[in-house]
Amino acid sequence: PLALLSLGDLYEAMKKPELANKTYERVPLTSPLQRNAQIQLALNLDALDHTDEAKANLEKLIAANPRDLEAIMALGNVLRGRKQFAECADVYSKGIDTITKPEKSNWVIYYFRGICLERSKQWAKAEDDLKKSLELYPDQPHVLNYLGYSWIDQGLNLDEGMRMIKRAVEQRADDGYIVDSLGWAHYRLGNMEEAVKQLERAVELKPEDPTI
Questions:
Q1: Are 45 and 57 in contact (CB under 8 A)?
Q2: Are 52 and 44 in contact (CB under 8 A)?
Q3: Which of 34, 49, 92, 155 has a CB 3.0–4.6 Å from the CB of 76, allowing a cystine?
Q4: Are 72 and 62 in contact (CB under 8 A)?
C-alpha cells in the first residue's frame, strides 16, 4: 500500500491524475493507508472537474469519522477552489470544532476559513480568524499579506497594514502576488511612484496574471 501511495504521488507530480487515481484504487480496503488514498483520489477527481464526485467521496469519509481533520480540510479546499465561499467556511468550522487546543500547525485552517469568510462578506469574523492564524504562526507571510491587504483596501489600520505587507515581502520577495499587494497598498496610500515600481516588479514575477 505504501508503494501504491508513492506511485500515485509520482503520477500526480507528472500531472497524470487519472493514472494516480487508478493506482489509489488498488490500495486494499483493509489497509490503514486506504483513507489517505481516498482523500488524494477525491482531490484528483476535483482536478479533473468531477467536483460533485470528489465532494461525495470526502463527505462519505467525514461521515465515517466526523473528526477526520485531513478529510475536512480537503473538502474545504475543494469548495474554496470552486469559489463556494460560504459553504467552505462552514466546512472549515467543522474542522476547527475538532481542535481542542490549537497548535502552530493549525494556522492554515484559520487562514483558509478567514479567506472564505472575507469572500462571503463576513469581514468581522474573517478578521478574527486571520488574527488567530497569526497568533498561532507569527510572521506567516501569506497571512500577513492577506490581513494587511484587506485592511488597506478597506481604509483601515493603514500603517499596521503596510508594515505587515512589507514584512511579508521581506520573506517572499519573489512572490508576485505579495509584491502586488505592496504596490496596491502604496496606491491606496497615494504613493503613486512607489506603487508603479512595485506593480511593475509584480508583473515581471507573474507575467501571466491578468489582475496584476
A1: yes
A2: no
A3: 92
A4: yes
pTM, full prediction: 0.93
Cα separation, 147 vs 140, in Å, equals 11
Encode pLDDT of 23-76 as tens digits: 999 999 999 999 999 999 999 999 999 999 999 999 999 999 999 999 999 999
Distance CA 53, CA 43 (A): 10
pLDDT for 179 equals 97
**Distance of alpha carbon 102 from the chain centroid:** 18
Q: Crossing angle, helix 34-47 and helix 17-24, to 10 degrees? A: 160
Question: Which grid cell is 22?
Answer: 487508478
Cβ–Cβ under 8 Å, residues 160 and 179: no
Q: Hey, what's the cell of 83?
A: 469559489
Q: Are 144 and 164 in contact (CB under 8 A)?
A: yes
Q: Yes or no: say if 117 and 125 are a contact pair by the CB < 8 Å rule.
A: yes
CA angle 159, 160, 164 (to 5 degrees): 120
Please give the single-letter amino acid code of residue 25.
E
Dist. CA 86–CA 106, nearest whole Å: 20
Contact 11, 41 (CB under 8 A): no
Q: How many Å apart are CA 180 and CA 90, to the nearest integer?
A: 30
Check if the beta carbon of residue 179 is closer than 8 Å to that of residue 150.
Answer: no
